[in-house]
Amino acid sequence: MLAPLEEESPWESAEVLGREGLDHDYGPPDEAEFVAPPSGSVGKARFRSYGKQIKDHLYQSRPRTLWRNKALKLKSKPGETKAQFSARLQLARREKRDEAAQKLQKRFAKKVKSMEARVGRAEDKVEREKSQYDQQKLQTGISMGATVLGAIFGSRGMGRATTAARGAGRIAREREDVTRAEENLEDLQEELRALEIEAEEEVRALVADMEREEPELEEVIVRPRKSDIRVSELRLAWKPD
Known about the structure:
By secondary structure, the protein is mostly helical. The chain is built from 3 helices and 3 strands; from the N terminus they run αββααβ.
């Protein structure tokens, strides 16, 4: 910092220079003259006062501005611009969105798996009922054939007719069992389709909601601690006009 000593509060108008901006020489240029510093502006006590003033000035005038987002619990890093932090925030938001979508998908996956197992058992039952129905039709057909032959040849025709009638009744019951099993299977398949649609819609709605929410940036002013400010070197300098 290069500050004019003739001002009452020189640090307000001080020029901030990096080390590369300092080109100093202990000797004056040819034909140059040194102007005497203002009265009372130099001396050990005065320089100690300057050091304290510099600390006070930097504490008041050089706070660091950071940015944070409470929802994602993120804060910008020292030296990170607002644009850079916003880009990092967008990436974190996408990662959070994907994580939330995966959790929702896993939750529905358990329900879908359970429903698929029920559908599988219902399909097995339909196959069993159909097999029993086919077997009963075959047995009843054989009984009816034997009844016809018995009637023709007069061999226990009445008893066989009664057996054939009972077989026809069992066919009807087996057919009803097949119908009920098929209806139950259709109901479960419909529930499975509805569950899959619900899962897709909820995931899509979750993603859309999180996409609509713009991440809020809150400005945070961080002031340096005076104990962290150190004036390493303080010299009297003449600046050429």
